[in-house]
Design brief:
This protein is mainly beta. The chain is built from 1 helix and 13 strands, in the order E-E-H-E-E-E-E-E-E-E-E-E-E-E.
Length: about 120
């Protein structure tokens, strides 16, 4: 399984996705810090954004990919921290589980091509 290591998250994806797409870190959308600041009453600390890009064209993937992938990152700093992502319309929660590859990390599964990620 190919892994793309970014500054705050690792993206674990299939050979199929690796053949079609590159994964790259992106700037966070500016409105996240002003419009999407809380989730279930708790403040959000947006930490990273990455995106899948079509290999032949370099165009960003809008919406969902044809299959899911895992991300691996450091756990939240609060015991009840919730991992969240922005789906283009609203902030959504993201279930985490302990990493099976790196002790002390957590994993989550997504299928979005451009998901800003944060802890709430």
């Amino acid at each position: 399984m190919p892994v793309t290591h970014l500054s705050k998250v690792s993206v674990h994806h299939s050979d199929n996705l690796a053949a079609k797409y590159d994964v790259a870190e992106k700037d966070l959308p500016p409105d996240l810090h002003t419009t999407h600041t809380h989730f279930n009453g708790a403040p959000i600390s947006w930490m990273t954004n990455f995106g899948f890009r079509h290999k032949p064209t370099g165009h960003a993937v809008a919406g969902h990919l044809e299959e899911s992938y895992d991300i691996e990152l450091d756990p939240g700093t609060r015991s009840n921290a919730a991992l969240v992502y922005f789906d283009g319309a609203a902030v959504q929660s993201l279930a985490t589980r302990p990493s099976d590859t790196t002790p002390g990390k957590v994993k989550a599964t997504l299928n979005l091509g451009d998901p800003p990620i944060g802890w709430s």
